Amino acid sequence: MSDTSPRVISISSGKGGVGKTFVSVHLAAQAARSGKKVLLIDADLGLANVDVMLGLHTGGSIRNLLADDAALEDLIIHCDRGFDVLPGGSGIYELTNLNVGEQQTILDSLREAGRDYDLILIDTAAGIGDNVLYFASAAETAVIVLTPDPTSLTDAYALIKVMSQQRDVHRFMVIINQTDEIDGQITFKRLLSVADRYLDVYLDYIGHIPQHPSVRQAIQQQRLITESDSAVGPHLNKLFETLLARPRDHSRAGGLQFFWEHSLASTLDASPDELAADAMQTQGVSS
Ligand SMILES: Nc1ncnc2c1ncn2[C@@H]1O[C@H](COP(=O)(O)OP(=O)(O)OP(=O)(O)O)[C@@H](O)[C@H]1O
Ligand SMILES: [Mg+2]
Q1: I need a labelling partner for 196 at 20 to 30 A (CA). Which of 19, 53, 61, 79 fits?
Q2: Is residue 64 situated within a structural domain?
Q3: What's the CA-to-centroid distance between 20 and ligand 2, angstroms?
Q4: For the AAA domain, which residue ranges apply (predicted)?
């Protein structure tokens, strides 16, 4: 894999509502500002909301790719924040559980359209469903977002466990949202101590994002947080600079190469539900 191939980063979480889409759209905007050609894929299929956060009017979505044989290029929106968006489609139950053939159709389309980009960000659904595992493990780098909330911590651990044991993903970047520096570090150390003890994974703490009313306001107004927005704007800039400056992961056959060529037809040994139940016997993770 060369550094000139597009970099694929997934943004996932165990528990929902922790800030994945917020992180995804701002990371996309920042990378675009720094001159990168960015595609943001809304892979929270069936409950997609990147378009809502950005105030975009979508004509089609991944659904048209699967149901109508539409070309992926025709579904991509060139948004005025300087990056492209592939909408995920909302209220469409069939998208919430793609079968292997449908996953392959998306993969085939990305093989073509993805070449033009420097960075492809995938905002996934929460949890450990098949779609999440598919998208997150196809990326070169998996970012896990969580909050200090014990259930968020436990679910992040469950996701990391399932991805490492079922999908051979062993490196994760971690962002703790809605917290301060000290609680962010305490939360990360909790996650790390359990992961180190029970899993074969490497966790890279990128940092925390403060909780601030300006985030909710910006989302309600369908605008992005800017550099001048409270304490959060400059903080986000630094955080994403750190993230984007991390060296690419050559340790696995990652990136688009993997994303394009890896076959996901392999079947799971155990169902995600069984693994989740196992993981959530917490092993002390939430205390
Ligand atoms: N740093 C923050 N400060 C204050 N509020 C925040 C912050 N981050 C996120 N929020 C609030 O959390 C809500 C959920 O954020 P977001 O939609 O990004 O989460 P998500 O993980 O993508 O959710 P889902 O799992 O439903 O896709 C936002 O609408 C916002 O109100
Ligand atoms: Mg979301």
Answers
A1: 19
A2: yes
A3: 5
A4: 7-165
